[in-house]
Amino acid sequence: MNTNYQLDENLMAELKMKSVKSEKEICGFILESNDFVEVKNVHPDPKNYFLISPADYIWEKGAILFHSHPSHIDTYGFSKWDLENQFYFQKKMLLYSVKYDEFYFKAP
Ligand SMILES: [Zn+2]
């Protein structure tokens, strides 16, 4: 695991399972309680990108933005798009890559 973020094992299993089952990128927020709140990926090309509607955005300070890279995505770690998003939203980000079976974490 390429992250310095300590993730709850049950939560990790849940995120992996949801990511593996989806052809599209899934996205949502991990709350401080370790609950995952999945929100709709509204990007026009959801197989390759994710986008969260401002209405669904969770601004709670400790919330971590999670999304997945489905198995067809070769990018190792965060994409340019992901990093641009983070620059804009200033959120901690967690990514799960199905292809590499790895989690990646990045603080803003
Ligand atoms: Zn991404």
Give the helix/strand layout.
Elements: H1 9-21, E1 27-30, E2 36-39, E3 64-69, H2 80-89, E4 93-97, E5 102-106
The structure holds zinc ion.
Explain the overall architecture.
By secondary structure, this protein is α+β, with helices and mostly antiparallel strands. The chain has one domain: Cytidine Deaminase, domain 2, CATH 3.40.140. Helix content is 21%, strand content 22%. It contains 2 helices and 5 strands; from the N terminus they run H-E-E-E-H-E-E. It has helices at residues 9-21, 80-89; strands spanning 27-30, 36-39, 64-69, 93-97, 102-106. A 5-stranded mixed beta sheet has the order 2-1-3-4-5, with helices on one face. Strand 4 and strand 5 (102-106) form a beta hairpin. The longest helix is centred in the N-terminal third of the chain and has 13 residues, at 9-21. The chain is globular and about 30 Å long. The site of zinc ion has 5 residues, from strand 3.
Labels describing this entry:
single chain; globular; Cytidine Deaminase, domain 2; binds zinc ion; 2 helices; 108 residues; five-stranded mixed beta sheet; alpha+beta; 21% helix
Outline: globular
Strand content: 15-25%
Physical arrangement of strands within the biggest beta sheet:
2-1-3-4-5
When the domains are counted, the total is: 1
Helix and strand content put the structural class at: alpha+beta
Q: Can you identify the CATH class? A: Alpha Beta
Report the span from N to C terminus: 19 Å
Number of helices: 2
CATH level-four homologous superfamily name: Cytidine Deaminase, domain 2
Radius of gyration: 12 Å
The poorly predicted ranges are none
